[in-house]
Design a protein that fits this description.
The protein folds into 3 domains: about 180 residues, P-loop containing nucleotide triphosphate hydrolases (Rossmann fold, 3-Layer(aba) Sandwich), CATH 3.40.50.300; about 210 residues, P-loop containing nucleotide triphosphate hydrolases (Rossmann fold, 3-Layer(aba) Sandwich); about 160 residues, no CATH class. About 30% of the residues lie in helices and about 20% in strands. It is built from 16 helices and 27 strands. The protein has an 8-stranded mixed sheet. It has a 6-stranded parallel sheet with strand order 11-18-17-14-16-15, sandwiched between helices. A hairpin with a 4-residue loop joins strand 3 and strand 4. It starts with a helix and ends in a 30-residue tail after the last strand.
């Protein structure tokens, strides 16, 4: 087997890290891009060229089998030197130069296995951030056996549900310290190594705002109760069947066992669909037969509950239906990632999103996770009102159906912002419908005497999200010019000279309503910036008598200590 260029680059990046640094590296490769050949190459080189000893750790039986298969392909001369330690595979080898092991079977047996120079951890995001998890216990013991052992992590998702990025300082308890190589989803799709995705949202929406969150995820029982209503199930099944008439293998993620059985029952009863279910408690023999039929194309629809994510390899999947919401960017990625693999006759993979996940987390090639906690900010996505495609926020015309979004007025110096947002990167553009607008007088905290106040405008765009801007009507120079232009576009009333007057006029209805805003965000910058507006009709307002010297009451929706300019 010959490595692809990015796989070879990943291997070389690992070796370079091991030579130049004293800490532990992590390789980030998308689902279906081939992490196992990278691991097999490192094993081959470490044992064949350098006489070392390597342990490969994983938590799923399928991953262990894949590792052994790739070693057989890439280094047949080493197969007699490869051992397996896994209760699930009924093997307990301990004295081979290469050991492929299930963490559940060996986490208390580091001393029995002996010293290793390298420990490769597949799906490295499974290493717990703290505590006495199985990986942490084993790695601590392995370091006692050999204080110089090096740990190499491989993952498609370098973040955890609650605690953020998996790499960090050793003094903070991290076992992985630096991402030495990362290949992006988009670049591998462009290069032809991954299957393109097409995403659509559902027409009937589930309102997740009332769901409680526990340990970084929606409470399971509440989620299933929300999704398992007759209306949502029947609507989801109808859309799944309609959208997949020309699809061949549809993998459905449900919110619970009862929900999954309900989905399967409707698909069988109303649509005479070929459908089976797989749960955690499904008997192994039955599960194996169902998966064999699905991979062979004899079964079109397969409904599962949290079991067919990591390690499940079915290249024929050309539709993934997410009939469950999740707060976890990693789980979202793993579910969608089941459709990344290439397959003859498969042009793309359709993702049907019934849980609002794409809008919650963003496109899978643009998931942003903060150093602590998960997904950062609003997703740079929007939903086409005509065909429900979920697309990058910068599109003016839907690439799926041709729907023309309402034209946004955009400052000339931002002419390329929407183009940049189509691709993953540091700049993102998002469109929001405005629910309410609040006007208030704002004086910067700790401002120098004589600093003029500003009119603060808060746009409420969701239940708990506000976007703010400051209109500098009492400033001079360019700031005043900008404020005048802002006012003239919204009102027939002469531009006020007082912020108090402006707030009174705004609250009295002198300004055109703001229907939508377009917001530009740049990674690393503290503030978002509004770059375009969709305004309603300018009102024919006539000023009543009022006293402009009396301060207007403030109605700020959020607090801010600084003005972003």
């Amino acid at each position: 087997m010959i490595l692809r260029a990015y796989q070879r680059d990943a291997v070389e990046a690992v070796y370079r890290h091991l030579r130049e640094r004293n800490d532990n590296p992590c390789v980030v490769l998308p689902t279906a891009s081939g992490k196992t050949p990278v691991m097999a190459t490192i094993c081959k080189d470490a044992v064949g060229q350098w006489g070392g000893r390597v342990l490969v750790l994983a938590h799923v039986k399928e991953l262990l089998e894949q590792a052994v298969d790739k070693l057989r392909l890439m280094a047949p001369e080493l197969m007699l030197q490869v051992g397996v330690y896994s209760a699930g595979l009924k093997k307990r080898d301990t004295d081979h130069p290469i050991i492929v092991a299930g963490i559940q079977s060996v986490y208390r047996k580091a001393c029995d296995l002996g010293p290793f120079q390298i420990v490769l951890v597949d799906e490295a995001h499974s290493i717990a951030p703290e505590g006495d998890g199985m990986y942490r216990q084993f790695l601590a013991d392995a370091k006692v056996v050999n204080p110089n052992v090096r740990v190499i992590g491989l993952t498609a998702t370098p973040f955890r549900m609650k605690s953020g990025l998996i790499c960090g300082p050793a003094e903070d308890g991290y076992y992985l310290h630096h991402i030495c190589y990362e290949a992006g989803v988009r670049e591998l799709i462009v290069q032809g190594y991954l299957c393109p995705l097409v995403t659509k949202a559902s027409r009937v929406k589930a309102d997740t705002s009332a769901l409680h969150i526990r340990a970084g995820e929606f409470v399971a029982g509440e989620t299933e109760a929300l999704m398992d209503t007759a209306e949502l199930v029947e609507s989801a099944c109808k859309e799944i069947v309609n959208y997949t008439q020309t699809r061949h293998s549809v993998l459905i993620f449900a919110s619970g066992v009862k929900h999954a059985e309900h989905l399967a029952s409707v698909l069988r009863g109303e649509y005479q669909a070929q459908v089976e279910t797989v749960f955690g408690e499904t008997l192994p023999s039955m599960r194996d037969q169902v998966l064999t039929d699905f991979k062979a194309g004899r079964l079109k629809y397969l409904v599962n509950v949290n079991v067919l994510t990591t390690g499940f390899d079915a290249p024929n999947i050309d539709c993934v239906a997410l009939v469950r919401p999740t707060m976890s960017p990693g789980l979202y990625y793993q579910m969608v990632g089941r459709g990344f693999r290439l397959h003859p006759g498969k042009a793309d993979c359709l993702v049907l999103d019934f849980g609002g996940n794409a809008l919650r987390h963003g496109p899978v090639d643009a998931i942003q996770v903060k150093a602590t906690g998960q997904g950062g900010g609003e997703a740079p996505s929007k939903e086409c009102p005509n065909c429900q495609a979920v697309i990058a926020a910068g599109y003016a015309r839907c690439p799926q159906c041709g729907y023309q979004f309402p034209e946004r007025e955009r400052a000339k110096h931002e002419a390329e912002a929407s183009t940049a947002s189509v691709l993953s990167g540091e700049v993102s553009i998002a469109d929001y419908l405005v629910q309410e607008v609040y006007y208030s007088v704002h004086t910067k905290r700790n401002a120098a005497p004589g600093t003029p106040p500003t009119m603060r405008v808060d746009y409420q765009v969701s239940l708990d999200k506000y976007v703010s801007e400051w209109v500098c009507l009492e400033h001079t120079g360019f700031a005043r010019y900008r404020a005048e232009e802002w006012w003239k576009r919204r009102s027939k009333v002469p531009v006020p000279t007082s912020v108090y007057e402006a707030v009174n006029l705004a609250e009295a209805g002198a300004l055109a309503p703001t229907k939508a805003i377009q917001v530009r965000s740049v990674s690393g910058e503290k503030y978002e910036r509004i770059v375009a507006y969709e305004l309603g009709e300018v009102p024919d307002y006539r000023e009543p008598g009022w006293d402009a010297t009396e301060p207007a009451g403030t109605s700020a929706a959020v607090d801010s200590d600084e003005i972003p300019f």
